[in-house]
Design goal:
The protein has one domain. The chain is built from one helix and five strands.
Amino acid sequence: MLKFGFNKIHNKIDIFESKRLRLFLGSRGQCLSYLIEEDTTSGHYIPVKLEYVHQLQNLFFSLFGEELIIKQD
């Protein structure tokens, strides 16, 4: 997630955020996605099952019109 430019926003559970997309990654592989409203902490659940990288890339492109690219170190 970090190589995609997401920032980890909590230390105890895996929560990542990029732009207004926030992902909660569970220990059993489940992923909950939320679109955060601008200038608030309110969010809207996105009922899309994300299991693979290309699904995340497709969702990101659908929401923001930008490619989600792995950043090289």
